[in-house]
Amino acid sequence: xxxxxxxxxxxxxxxxxxxxxxxxxxxxxxxxxxxxxxxxxxxxxxxxxxxxxxxxxxxxxxxxxxxxxxxxxxxxxxxxxxxxxxxxxxxxxxxxxxxxxxxxxxxxxxxxxxxxxxxxxxxxxxxxxxxxxxxxxxxxxxxxxxxxxxxxxxxxxxxxxxxxxxxxxxxxxxxxxxxxxxxxxxxxxxxxxxxxxxxxxxxxxxxxxxxxxxxxxxxxxxxxxxxxxxxxxxxxxxxxxxxxxxx
Length: 247
What we know:
Layout lengths: L8 E3 L4 H9 L3 E2 L18 E3 L9 E2 L2 E3 L4 H5 L7 H8 L4 H4 L4 H7 L6 H7 L3 E6 L6 E4 L10 E7 L6 E6 L10 E8 L2 E7 L6 E3 L18 H20 L3
Parallel strand pairs: 1-3, 2-3
Antiparallel strand pairs: 4-5, 5-8, 6-7, 6-8, 9-10, 10-11, 11-12
């Protein structure tokens, strides 16, 4: 007889204590499980997984949202002073999927191609997370998620400082194709905040006057490092011009 495959266990915690216990046991957070339907960004199922749908993380406040807030609901809030966030949400997946995909699911997946991350980063967005090695939630900059080396769960997001901003990406021929390179730009007091997504191994804030060298960019079947480096330079210049000279 062949080997009997065991179904992965899925926990549905209702309290921070229950969630922390699951994280300490090495559980993998799958949010509300929408990613299970995705071929583009499927979650990695472990023996023990956590569904956050019973944690009460669905609230939306002024420029803040719980982890279980769907992208479409966040997009429906007042994002006039966080335009890059609005533009990133608009090009994420399809309208139908945006009604299902959650903020916490996007951030917790730490996908380098995620449109939302660079847009949040230029606004100095803060994420509240619960880590396996600490029983109390902590707030960290959104890009610091890539430095977390223990199981964790995203609980909420604060959109950060308002200001003139834009987001743009270059993708494939299909509108919902993953980004080859993406850039978010915000004008801030005394200068600019610029974040590059998709083109490197992780989203990264950069100095617009000194784009990182070609060696910092990645190469895959969708584009070379040289191509991505060129795209980022063009996108940065175009977005800064659009913010300085709005039509």
